[in-house]
Recover the amino acids of this structure.
């Protein structure tokens, strides 16, 4: 696989305090990597460092030359007194109507193109922000809490959609999430962060790691185990339930 980003022992320090300490990770093309950890663990700081928005105090960060990155923020404030349609909002990031239409279709909300952004639901807004992030056909998609404010059904649909986008664009995905039992089943590699890397690897390996269990408790690990062992169906990008082929 093509290596997109590699961090080697990087640290980020603010006012003499280490927000991120001695962290190493890699993200390859076609791979979904998820950062988890408690509040204040340095997840957003690490992402900012990878985006070039936070200065690295030590270590080395290497990126693929001319790497194109699409970024989906955790929140975006839109002035409610300035009505703007979904398509117009996306046109601010791309002057090509064809690109806007393709992005809306890919995230499953082409029918909302003319709707005011202020009038759509929280889950629909997250899809709009995701469409905005993929407008440039990025090689790396960076998502900060993509399911923020979305109900449990919507979260399942959204994570299925992210995997679909990864497959369609053949891009790498770096994601921050707190939705442990859902996102850990929808990712290739998990990095558990608490200023430093507590543990990392395949989701099931991480969920059984003592460091993970110390941070999130046995209940978090049990939820993931139940999800992996008993989840005998899949969801389409529209949320429909279909039987897994390997269970047929």
């Amino acid at each position: 696989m093509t290596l997109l980003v590699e961090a080697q022992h990087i640290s980020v320090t603010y006012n003499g305090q280490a927000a991120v300490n001695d962290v190493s990770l890699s993200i390859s093309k076609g791979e979904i990597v998820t950062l988890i950890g408690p509040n204040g663990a340095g997840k957003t700081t690490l992402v900012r460092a990878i985006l070039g928005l936070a200065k690295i105090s030590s270590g080395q960060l290497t990126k693929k030359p001319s790497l194109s990155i699409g970024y989906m923020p955790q929140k975006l404030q839109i002035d409610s007194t300035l009505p703007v349609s979904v398509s117009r909002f996306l046109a601010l990031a791309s002057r090509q109507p064809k690109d806007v239409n393709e992005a809306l279709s890919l995230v499953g909300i082409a029918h909302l193109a003319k709707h005011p952004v202020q009038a759509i639901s929280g889950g629909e807004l997250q899809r709009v922000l995701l469409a905005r992030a993929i407008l440039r056909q990025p090689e790396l998609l960076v998502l900060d809490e993509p399911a923020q404010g979305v109900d449990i059904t919507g979260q399942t649909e959204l994570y299925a959609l992210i995997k679909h986008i990864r497959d369609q664009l053949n891009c790498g995905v770096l994601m921050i999430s707190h939705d442990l039992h859902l996102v850990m089943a929808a990712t290739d590699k998990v990095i558990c962060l608490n200023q430093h890397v507590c543990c990392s690897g395949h989701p099931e390996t991480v969920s059984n790691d003592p460091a993970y269990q110390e941070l999130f408790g046995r209940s978090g690990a049990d939820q993931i185990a139940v999800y992996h062992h008993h989840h005998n169906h899949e969801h389409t990008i529209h949320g429909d339930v279909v039987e897994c082929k390997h269970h047929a």
In short: The helical segments are 43-51, 86-91, 97-106, 122-133, 152-169, 180-183, 203-207, 210-230. DSSP finds eight helices and eleven strands in the chain. The first helix runs from residue 43 to 51. The chain has a mean pLDDT of 84.
